[in-house]
């Protein structure tokens, strides 16, 4: 599963989501973290919305925003739901 996490340095919500994604054991996740401060288009699109998580690289799909309080299990459950729907 290819995931792209739009983030920026010092964003504790981004860091928290990244940690949870890295803890998921039940799914093969290929995580790419993109720093929005390195690309003006990303910054313009996501400066007020990070963390933003997209699934897929060829035709990326924005995944629903997760609560910062979501557990690792809840994050995995959301990802599985989107895998099953595809």
Radius of gyration: 12 Å
Strand content: 15-25%
Instruction: Assign the CATH class.
Output: Alpha Beta
Number of helices: 3
Helix content: 25-40%
Q: How would you characterize this protein structure?
A:
The protein is an alpha+beta fold and 86 residues long. The protein has a single domain, classed as Glutaredoxin (3-Layer(aba) Sandwich), CATH 3.40.30. The protein is 38% helix and 21% strand. The chain has three helices and four strands, in the order E-H-E-H-E-E-H. It has helices spanning 12-23, 40-46, 72-85; strands spanning 2-7, 30-35, 52-55, 61-62. Strands 2-1-3-4 form a four-stranded mixed sheet, covered by helices on one side. Strand 3 (52-55) and strand 4 (61-62) form a beta hairpin. The protein is globular, with a radius of gyration of 12 Å. The model has no long low-confidence stretch (mean pLDDT 93).
Question: What's the arrangement of secondary structure elements?
Answer:
Blueprint: E1 2-7, H1 12-23, E2 30-35, H2 40-46, E3 52-55, E4 61-62, H3 72-85
Parallel strand pairs: 1-2
Antiparallel strand pairs: 1-3, 3-4
């Amino acid at each position: 599963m290819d995931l792209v996490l739009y983030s920026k340095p010092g964003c504790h919500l981004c860091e928290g989501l990244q940690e949870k994604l890295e803890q998921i054991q039940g799914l093969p996740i290929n995580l790419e973290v993109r720093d929005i401060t390195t690309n003006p288009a990303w910054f313009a699109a996501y400066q007020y919305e990070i963390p933003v998580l997209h699934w897929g690289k060829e035709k990326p799909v924005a995944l629903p925003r997760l609560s910062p309080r979501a557990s690792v299990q809840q994050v995995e459950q959301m990802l599985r739901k989107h895998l099953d729907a595809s």
